[in-house]
UniProtKB/TrEMBL annotation:
Name assigned to this protein: GNAT family N-acetyltransferase
Species, as recorded: Pseudomonas retamae
Any Pfam family matching the protein: Acetyltransf_3
Gene3D superfamilies: 3.40.630.30
Coiled-coil portions: none
Record domain N-acetyltransferase: where: 12-181
UniProt keyword terms in alphabetical order: Acyltransferase, Transferase
GO molecular function: acyltransferase activity
InterPro entries: Acyl_CoA_acyltransferase, GNAT_dom, N-acetyltransferase
Length: 189
């Protein structure tokens, strides 16, 4: 299958990563508010390594976390996309949808707009049967994006993230799912 290198939504270009994205990406990942629901903010070196892993995922799978560029200003504002879940859990193997935006660009609907576009690529182009999403139980802004794009939550699916220590406050995660059928239904609503 052809790799999905680029997508577009009304206000966003979802593109491959450029070396020039590093300063803005590193600033975003060093921001304690953006990283509130992750174990820790990232150093510049760690952010560079994340970009490397994202590029590797695109090479291996033909899809991944697209860099988001605002069409009106040309600014890099974060990422949204699809990834193969990298740990074992009752719901894996699975493809997840995820997002992270710099806080100046929150509250404008960009995350949901990009997520909707990524979801459509997952079902329309990649022909996935299901897409999942998960986040720390306290991360309500992220859960709102999951709900906004029509994902469903069954509390019985919630799980302890295996990569976090047993006593870590962020360990408990909510899991949302959307099947191809459910996605098709949202198109007719
Ligand atoms: C999770 C995250 C991406 C959500 O960003 P967001 O901007 O709140 O999400 P959306 O794009 O859905 O925007 C929705 C908000 O924009 C508002 N909005 C403004 N214009 C809008 C438009 N044209 N369309 C939709 N919503 C719009 C909505 O009212 C809503 O505001 P509210 O939250 O005050 O109700 C952001 O908080 C983030 O990057 N967090 C840090 C990283 C993170 O935790 N990632 C997830 C880890 S699993």
């Amino acid at each position: 299958m052809e790799p999905i290198l680029e997508l577009q939504s009304a206000r966003l270009l979802m593109r491959q990563w450029q070396d020039e994205d590093l300063p803005a990406f590193a600033a975003m990942c060093a921001d304690p508010q953006v990283m509130r629901y992750f174990p820790a903010p990232l150093t510049r070196l760690e952010s560079a390594a994340v970009i490397g892993r994202i590029r590797g995922h695109f090479s291996e799978h033909g899809f991944g976390l697209w860099a988001l560029e605002r069409k009106d200003t040309g600014e890099f504002i974060g990422f949204t996309g699809l990834g193969v879940v990298g740990f074992d859990a009752p719901f894996t193997p699975a493809v997840e949808i995820g997002w992270r935006l710099a806080k100046e660009h929150w509250g404008l609907g960009y995350a949901s707009e990009a997520a909707w576009t990524a979801l459509r690529a997952g079902f329309d182009q990649l022909k996935l049967e299901e897409i999942v999403s998960f986040t720390a139980q306290s991360n309500l802004p992220s859960e709102k994006v999951m709900q906004a794009i029509g994902m469903h939550h069954d509390p019985q699916d919630d799980f302890d993230h295996p990569k976090l220590a047993v006593d870590h406050p962020l360990r408990r995660h909510v899991l949302y799912r959307i099947s191809r059928e459910q996605w098709l239904q949202t198109l007719h609503e």
